[in-house]
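Duplicate of #3305? Posting structure anyway:
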């Protein structure tokens, strides 16, 4: 069973935010007095990962103050798969036992949920979150999955690898993924 202390967090923050609206990037919008992209980063930074890696676009979020090593995806248009590959490449070089792949636009993920993902790992190579409808990030991948993750391309990310994952349930509200301005407004209204 992988431990958080032996694992690398890979936070994906290089998306182009095409569904959010012209001229506005969702990760820079305010939520809880921070930029949206910093909220998940701050929550996850509280966990004792061996290393924290933020894969960003050039000129994107600067998460160094939260303890993240910045890795720039020079071609965000290549899709989420490329960002996953870049982050896992760093984890592989560091000799990590596992990676937790999380999204910067999922601001309500809790540290307790991440701990449950690790607790559920056992002999499983992939453990994913579930809101009762589908497997989704954050997702934990053990070292034996690194080659598959590094081979990813396109905008599907690691979705195919999640098909056989052990699933750990979380409330739907904890796994909110903000893609549009309307979703951000609904989240602000729900959270007060």
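Output from current build:
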């Amino acid at each position: 069973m992988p431990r958080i202390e032996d694992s690398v967090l890979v936070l994906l923050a290089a998306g182009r935010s095409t569904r959010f609206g012209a001229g506005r990037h969702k990760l820079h919008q305010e939520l809880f007095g921070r930029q949206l992209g910093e909220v998940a980063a701050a929550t996850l930074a509280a966990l004792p990962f061996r290393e924290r890696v933020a894969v960003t676009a050039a000129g994107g979020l600067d998460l160094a103050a939260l303890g993240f090593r910045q890795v720039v995806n020079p071609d965000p248009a290549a899709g989420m798969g490329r960002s996953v590959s870049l982050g896992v490449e760093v984890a592989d070089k560091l000799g990590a036992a596992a990676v937790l792949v999380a999204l910067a636009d999922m601001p309500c993920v809790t540290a307790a949920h991440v701990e449950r993902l690790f607790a559920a790992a056992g002999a499983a190579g992939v453990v994913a979150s579930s809101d009762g409808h589908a497997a989704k990030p954050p997702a934990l991948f053990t070292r034996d999955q690194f080659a598959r993750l590094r081979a990813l391309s396109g905008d599907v990310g690691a979705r195919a690898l999640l098909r056989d994952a052990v699933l750990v349930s979380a409330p739907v509200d904890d796994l909110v993924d903000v893609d549009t301005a309307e979703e951000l407004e609904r989240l602000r209204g729900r959270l007060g």
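Confirmed duplicate; merging threads. Residues 4-191 form a domain with the Spore Coat Polysaccharide Biosynthesis Protein SpsA; Chain A fold (CATH 3.90.550.10). The radius of gyration is 15 Å.
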